[in-house]
Amino acid sequence: MRIATVLAVVTFEVFLVRAGAATPDEARWETIQTHLKADRFEEALAAFREIEKTSTTNADLPAILLKIAVGFCRVNKDREAIPLFQEIIDQWPASSSALKADLEIGKAYYKLGDEEKMVQYYENAASSKPSPADPYGIACSEACRHLGDYYMKKHRWADSLKWWLRWEPNSWCGTCNLSMKADREDKILFCSVQMELESGRPERAIQRLEQVALSPGGGLNENLMVLLVDLCQKNGKLAELEYNLQAARQKPSGLTSYLEMLHQAEKGDYEPLWKQISHLNQHPFIHGVPLVARVLATQGERVKPFLMQKLKDAEADRKEGGDPLWILVLLGAIKAPETQDLVKPRIESEKNVHCLKDYFYALALLGTEKAYAVIRDHADHAADNRQAAAREVLERYPKPGSASLQLP
Questions:
Q1: Do 257 and 311 have their domain in common?
Q2: 390 is in which domain, residue-wise?
């Protein structure tokens, strides 16, 4: 810690104590909070070590140390954070902070590329039982969800299914709880379908999806719709699916609309599809992309000339161009190599943090090592909003190839 900072901290603490505003311990707590708010995590840790020697409020210690460790991770200093998480687990094993540390240390190891350690700590949390420190079993629930997601990304469907079946959504909000339960059912169906495909049974996979799609009051989420249509296309079953949709008493309008958009895109009729997203007042990284954007992205190189022309129109302030931000995200999604050179100057001139996230998202979608080098460079060395935006994109998509067009 710099000498000037040390002097400033000591002076601030002495002032609080002499002014009668705080006891020495309270003054140090205030100092730690000040450092945390300013992202001075080394200084916060040094102040914590001082209060650790004298504090009589030991119940607060693991929670404060957890905040410091999470702060280190937020600024990509995961190696510094890991011993702090481990300290919490070892010294305060019965605390709620220890359960949270199991989850956070797992995330840190994942960012560092040590997936074996990540799984170890997530499984530790997943084996926890409800206790006074965690009466609702939230740590176990979160760990199961993380493991389900992890194995899905690895295409280890049986392992993923095991954790989704163990995941018990838990939320004080009734609406959120219903949403999480629906998400759980979708993930279970997705893994089951993928296991059928691994076993060489595509027709059974199609049957599973179609049964849900055509059930009264049922339906598929957009990701499962995409999967169903893709399977039908590959296995010559698309006409049969469309016939069954027409024959169904309750037509799944979302699936029907998706099929109509795909036919339109295959004809090269991109303009009506583009109009649905060209002036959307939302940010792809934060809000997700509408299904129509995924439809356009399925066209790959075919849609590239159309998008490049739209970008020229947008840069010339022509109304038909639309929002260049959406164009760049789609160019990244179709792996257009021009994306990086188009995005970089916009990153340097942009100040809005949400737009910056979208530009870094476009680079993550491009997925090249060079594109990720740009994101990492800004995460490590940029200032203000550029650094914050780059770090958030890296947190969600830490490696090349991990990004995809996310539906809302």
A1: no
A2: 268-408
